[in-house]
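ok trying this again, last paste got cut off
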Amino acid sequence: MVNRLFLGRKIEEANASLRAKDAKVIGLEYAQKSNESPKEETGSTIKSQQEKYREMEAELEGCFQQKIEAEVKYLAISRTIPKVRVAAADQVAMGQPQIFN
């Protein structure tokens, strides 16, 4: 029972992490789109904008990587829960003490 609660919390944490990363990605995409409006800019301003874009792109790539890692963790945890339940049921059926409590 304790292990099941632990895994449930891990799934909730992974989902919360995914939602936060999705929100950050959306925010970064919006910021990038809002900065793309055509303007007459000086050479130095254009260079600083290009640097900002590179930084945002690197941050966006990091967010995508973290999102993928969180999704992998979520899948691993969500697939482990049924296995733990089956193992616990097997132990109960065989009359062995549960190690998951």
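PB: full thing came through this time. The chain has two helices and no strands.
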